[in-house]
Design goal:
The structure is a single chain. The strands form 4 sheets. This protein has a 7-stranded mixed beta sheet. The longest helix has 21 residues. It is globular. By secondary structure, the protein is of the alpha/beta class. The chain has 2 domains: 261 residues, 4-Layer Sandwich (Metallo-beta-lactamase, Chain A); 177 residues, 3-Layer(aba) Sandwich (Rossmann fold), CATH 3.40.50.10890. A hairpin with an 8-residue loop joins strand 17 and strand 18.
């Protein structure tokens, strides 16, 4: 018996959490919170796990929408065994502790009990970790058979993993968030060599026309030129980034271009959680797949943003400011700084990744100088005086690459997750057209898929 039940993350990008039943073994793949929701609405639907076997939680990587609901799950199911890569475990210790204060500021619901730092510390200690390509056994007291699991480098962020499960005669591969293309620091993903029977794949960029996307190298050239244009007129640049993944890649990109004298040497401001994650990237640069192994992020000259008491100081001389959140969520540093930047005519805001349509970052990314925008219904409209430029430094596979995964792994059945309706539709139609005879399932939250 094989059953697949999305508790979140099907037909959407958020609260990714999938229950997989392999006969009598219950495996939960990822356990994230929805970044655009708060309180109980942000969590996967754990109630659906009642009366089901639950043995393991395998976390593909440490982004919020794949990890941050884990403490809530363990409160309800404390017997679960958690397994990640070593790098994901290290990042989780930072991000889960950091999320506590954020949750306290967001949540007013009495029934939503926020976890304590002591609980996070105990949870982290309980996490077992396995390196890439290290096979490990999943079994349970009630099971007559065992499952062999293995992590494969997913090329998304540090520690990110695709998860291979070999159960009796079935090979199941869960991509997690996967990127086949090389970034500045991380090379592309590594896929299993054997045929896969069931593929559970993300579809984030399946609806995006790749002809509108530059390669990482071409986008770096455009990015570099745009930075110099702003610096040469005396302006400063605000770059909203995710503290995990995007900060490290963009910081490395800028520094390497400065080292080649392609970007003028100006002050770089960073800070907070991202700088702590930089150390994890540095510590692991020789033990994981990595470009630029000799580059140490911590050694790049950076000024601490928290030391700036007057934001006007950031405009006295040209500077580059890398700050979270990547989507300029309300009350975050990037949101607060963006409101200052929008008023500075010689400066610019550069976006470097996906913007959810419900976020302030999306509103800003679609605006141009002279427009008037309202970032919050309780705030006045702001007239934009700075430049706004959008760049796409993607950590996800393009749609052609997603199809190449199907071609290489040759699965008989494909389950589509982690994408909006348009992405799921494009991916499903393309798979059926290019690979006749496959069975394609568009997963729906809270609806079970059963296989023979």
């Amino acid at each position: 018996m094989l059953k697949f039940l999305p508790l979140g993350g099907a037909g959407e990008i958020g609260a990714n959490c999938y229950y997989l039943r392999l006969n009598d073994i219950g495996i939960i793949l990822d356990c994230g919170m929805h970044p655009q929701k708060t309180g109980l609405e942000s969590l996967p639907k754990f109630d659906l796990l009642k009366d089901k076997p639950t043995d393991y939680v395998l976390i593909s990587h440490a982004h919020q929408d794949h990890l941050n609901a884990l403490p809530f799950l363990i409160k309800q199911f404390p017997h679960l065994k958690i397994i990640t890569t070593p790098q994901t475990r290290a990042v989780a210790e930072l991000t889960l502790n950091n999320s506590i204060s954020i949750l306290k500021s967001q949540v007013k619901e009495k029934e939503f009990e926020i976890y304590l730092r002591e609980e996070v510390d105990l949870l982290i200690k309980s996490i077992d970790y396995k390196s890439y390509n290290e096979k490990f056994i999943l079994d349970s007291l009630n099971s007559r058979s065992e499952t062999v699991a293995e992590f494969f480098d997913a090329g998304h962020i540090i520690g990110s993993a695709g998860i291979l499960l070999k159960h009796t005669e079935q090979n199941i591969f869960f991509t997690g968030d996967i990127n086949l293309s090389s970034q500045t620091l991380l090379p592309g993903a590594v896929l299993p060599s054997e045929k896969i029977d069931i593929l559970i794949t993300e579809s984030t960029y399946a609806a995006t026309d790749s002809s509108k996307l530059n390669s990482w190298e071409k986008e770096t050239e455009r990015f570099t030129s745009s930075i110099n244009n702003v610096i040469n007129r005396g302006g400063s640049i605000l770059i909203p980034v995710f503290a995990l993944g995007k900060l490290q890649e963009i910081l490395a990109t800028i520094w390497l271009q400065m080292q080649k004298n392609k970007i003028a040497a100006v002050d770089i401001y960073t800070g907070g959680l991202g700088n702590k994650i930089n150390r994890i990237y540095d510590y692991n640069r020789y033990v994981t797949n990595r470009n630029e192994k000799e580059l140490t992020l911590h050694d790049i000259p950076q000024k601490e943003l928290s030391g700036v008491t007057d934001y006007d100081d950031l405009f006295r001389y040209p500077s580059i400011v890398l700050v979270s959140s990547g989507m300029m969520i309300r009350s975050t540093n990037s949101y607060i700084l963006a409101k200052h930047w929008l008023q500075k005519k010689d400066s610019a805001i550069f976006t470097v990744g996906y913007m959810d349509p419900t976020t302030p970052g999306y509103i800003i990314s679609k605006a141009r100088s002279g427009d008037k925008i309202q970032l919050n219904e309780n705030e006045r409209k702001i007239e934009i005086k700075c430049d706004i430029k959008n760049f796409r430094f993607s950590a996800h596979s393009r749609r052609e690459e997603l199809l190449s995964i199907v071609k290489k792994l040759n699965p008989g059945k494909i389950i589509l997750v982690h994408g909006d309706a348009e992405s799921i539709d494009w991916m499903g139609a393309s798979v059926l057209k290019q690979f006749p005879g496959r069975k394609v399932f568009a997963a729906e939250n809270f609806k079970e898929i059963e296989f023979d």
